[in-house]
Design goal:
Blueprint lengths: L6 H12 L3 E6 L7 E7 L4 E6 L9 H15 L9 E5 L9 E5 L15 H14 L28 H12 L8 E3 L8 E4 L2 E5 L6 E3 L1 H16 L1 H15 L5 H9 L14 H16 L5
Helix pairs in contact: 3-6, 4-7, 4-8, 5-6, 5-7, 5-8, 7-8
Pfam families: APH
Protein name: Aminoglycoside phosphotransferase family protein
C-alpha cells in the first residue's frame, strides 16, 4: 500500500459508519485495482473495505467506487448475491484514495487449481443469466472495449499469428447489433465466492455497464481458458447459451480475447508463458470454430 494512504483513518471511518470500531483486519487475495481488506468490528460484524490504490484505477477511483455502489444498490432485493453497500468516500477525503465499505458475503474464492467444471460451471452460467435479466431503473454507462486498436499487433510469442491477424480484421469491421443488457463487465470465476458447488456471492462491480450479453460471457470464458484451458471455456459458453437462450455471438468473444493483449511497449498483465500460450490457443480456437466465431 502506498505511503500516502491513511489506513488508520480509513479504518476509523469504517468503524464510525457501522457504529462499531474495527478491531482487526486482513488483506483479501486478488485486488489488481485495489487494496481489499476484510474488517472485523468490535460487535462481531464483518465488512469489506475497498481502497482504490493501484494506478491507473486510482486516478479514476471516484467514478469506479461510485459505480460499484450504484450496482450493489441496484442488485439489492434481487436474486443476484451482491454485497450491500454500507458507506462511500468517493473523493478520498478520509484516506487519500477512493474508499467503499460493503458487507462481507459468505463463501470463499476458488483456489487457483480448482476448476469450476460441471456443477460449478452450470452455477456460473445460471448466475450470469440472472444478472443479465436485471433491469435497473437507471441504465449504466455503455460498455468500453478493452481491445483498443493500439493493441492490434500480432504478439511475438504467438504460435497462431494468422488467427490474431484475422481477429484484428474482425474488430476493424462493424460490430453486430445487440440488445442493451445489464452487464457485470468483469464476470469470471475469480470474482465469485463459493460454498461447495454453489455461488454465494459475486463481487467487484466497478466496471458495471450496459452492452452485449455475450461480452460478459466472453470474459468469463477467457478467464477460464487462461486458468484451465479451452475445454473449460467452451463448457461454460455452452451452458450459458442454454441458460440464457442466446446463440453464441463470436464478435464479442474475439473482442474479449484481444483485450488481453498489452498496448505496444507494455508487458502483459500476466507474464507467465503458460498463460500466454493458453490465451494464444483460446483466440485460435475462437477464430477456427464456427460454433464460436
Amino acid at each position: 500500500m502506498q505511503d500516502d494512504v491513511d489506513i488508520a483513518a480509513a479504518l476509523a471511518w469504517a468503524g464510525s459508519a457501522l457504529g462499531s470500531p474495527v478491531v482487526s483486519y486482513d488483506a483479501l487475495p486478488g485486488g489488481l485495482t485495489s487494496t481489499m481488506l476484510a474488517l472485523r468490528h468490535d460487535d462481531g460484524a464483518d465488512s469489506v473495505l475497498r481502497l482504490m490504490t493501484a494506478e491507473p484505477w486510482r486516478t479514476h477511483g471516484a467514478e469506479l467506487v461510485s459505480r460499484e455502489r450504484d450496482a450493489q444498490v441496484a442488485m439489492a432485493g434481487t436474486s443476484v448475491p451482491a454485497p450491500t453497500s454500507l458507506a462511500l468516500d468517493a473523493d478520498g477525503t478520509v484516506a487519500g484514495v477512493a474508499a467503499h465499505l460493503m458487507s462481507r458475503l459468505p463463501g470463499a474464492p476458488l483456489d487457483e487449481d480448482e476448476e469450476p467444471g460441471g456443477a460449478r460451471s452450470q452455477a456460473m452460467a445460471d448466475l450470469l443469466a440472472a444478472i443479465h435479466a436485471q433491469q435497473p431503473a437507471q441504465p449504466f454507462r455503455t460498455f468500453q472495449s478493452w481491445a483498443w486498436e493500439a493493441k492490434w499487433v500480432v504478439p511475438s510469442w504467438s504460435r497462431h499469428p494468422g488467427s490474431w491477424q484475422r481477429a484484428f480484421e474482425v474488430l476493424a469491421g462493424p460490430a453486430p447489433a445487440y440488445e442493451p443488457t445489464f452487464l457485470h463487465r468483469d464476470f469470471s470465476h475469480r470474482n465469485l465466492l463459493w460454498a461447495g458447488d454453489a455461488v454465494t456471492g459475486v463481487v467487484d462491480w466497478v466496471e458495471t455497464s450496459t452492452g452485449p450479453a455475450w461480452l460478459d460471457a466472453a470474459h468469463g470464458a477467457s478467464n477460464l481458458a487462461l486458468a484451465h484451458g479451452t475445454d473449460a471455456a467452451q463448457d461454460f459458453l455452452r451452458r450459458y447459451a442454454t441458460a440464457a437462450g442466446r446463440a453464441v455471438e463470436g464478435h464479442w468473444l474475439v473482442m474479449d480475447a484481444v483485450g488481453y493483449l498489452p498496448p505496444p511497449g507494455k508487458r502483459p498483465l500476466f507474464g507467465r508463458s503458460d498463460l500466454l500460450a493458453r490465451l494464444d490457443d483460446w483466440l485460435d480456437l475462437v477464430m477456427r470454430d464456427p460454433a464460436l466465431s
